Amino acid sequence: MFSKDEKKQFNSDFWNSFGLYMKKYNNRYGRLRWVNYRSNVKDIFFRLSMTPKEAIFSIEIQHNDDDIRELFYEQFLQLKTVLESSIGNDVVWEQVSFNQYDSPVSKISVHISDVSIYNKDDWKKTFQFYEKRMVGLHEFWEEFKEVFKQLED
């Protein structure tokens, strides 16, 4: 078991290392904040999370209005084939899920298990998992962001 400070240090080291790992894409895409990649569409968030047991890449639609949230989710569903070819076929689609604050969200996610933020031997595998999803997401989002921006209005 690790102390609170040790866990905080692992967390900081992991995300800083991932940011450095992704710098190799700066020449191709410009300088991006891969760890905190922004959608620039209100209420759509791209998340990377790491627990002691798994790594998760997710797209969360957090609009308070159920109908608008469903509209965004349906748009992602219409682009499902393209999105899954970009981020992988092992995607979990949840029209209604609940975030850590118990608010309803729609969630599209990919998980890998048997990796831990507290095991540095797992970091390379996790970085590669995130890399594939984030680069694929970036290319998808560059092509389709405007579709979602129009729904935002």
Description:
With 153 residues, the chain is an alpha+beta fold. The chain has helices at residues 4-21, 26-29, 66-78, 80-87, 123-152, and strands at 44-50, 54-61, 92-98, 104-113. The protein has one domain (4-152): Yope Regulator, Chain: A (2-Layer Sandwich), CATH 3.30.1460. It is built from 5 helices and 4 strands, in the order H-H-E-E-H-H-E-E-H. Helix 4 packs antiparallel against helix 5. It starts with a helix and ends with a helix.
Strand order in the sheet with the most strands: 1-2-4-3
- How many separate helices? 5
Largest sheet: 4 strands, antiparallel
User: Which residues sit in consecutive blocks of at least 5 with pLDDT less than 50?
Assistant: none
State the order of secondary-structure elements, H for helix, E for strand.
HHEEHHEEH
Short description:
The chain has helices at residues 4-21, 26-29, 66-78, 80-87, 123-152; strands at 44-50, 54-61, 92-98, 104-113. It is α+β, with helices and mostly antiparallel strands. The protein has a single domain (4-152), classed as Yope Regulator, Chain: A.
Strand-helix topology:
Elements: H1 4-21, H2 26-29, E1 44-50, E2 54-61, H3 66-78, H4 80-87, E3 92-98, E4 104-113, H5 123-152
Antiparallel strand pairs: 1-2, 2-4, 3-4
What tags apply to this protein structure?
153 residues, alpha+beta, Yope Regulator, Chain: A, 4-stranded antiparallel sheet, 48% helix, globular
